[in-house]
Design brief:
The chain is an all-alpha fold. Helix content is 74%, strand content 0%. Helix 2 runs antiparallel to helix 3. The radius of gyration is 17 Å and the shape is elongated. The chain starts with a helix and ends in a 13-residue tail after the last helix. The mean pLDDT is 87.
Length: 101
């Protein structure tokens, strides 16, 4: 079995990559993918910390809730991106500067 530090380092790396993607990318789909990477990093940390208490399943339950929130966020986020692209013909968030009809 791997030590818990390896999982925490991997989670920190995934979170850092997701944060860099969110900050640097201009495409809204890539920003959503970066957010998903950060949520997966938090899931990995929750399951890794669950190893410290073998009789408890709290980390796995929290990870399940984060997965459910991530699915809902992806569905709503993609619907918003599709509507914005349909209306403005761009997926770059900086070019959308008018929210009126």
């Amino acid at each position: 079995m791997f030590p818990i530090e390896h999982f925490l380092y991997l989670g920190a790396l995934l979170f850092s990559v997701g944060l860099v993607v969110v900050i640097t990318k201009k495409n809204m789909i890539m920003v959503l993918l970066g957010i998903e990477l950060m949520l997966n990093a938090s899931n990995l940390n929750l399951v890794a910390f669950n190893q410290l208490y073998p009789g408890s399943n709290n980390g796995q339950m929290f990870a399940l809730f984060v997965i459910i929130v991530a699915v809902c966020e992806a569905a709503v986020g993609l619907a918003i991106v599709i509507q914005v692209y349909h209306y403005y013909h761009t997926s770059v968030p900086g070019e959308v500067n008018d929210l009126s009809d």
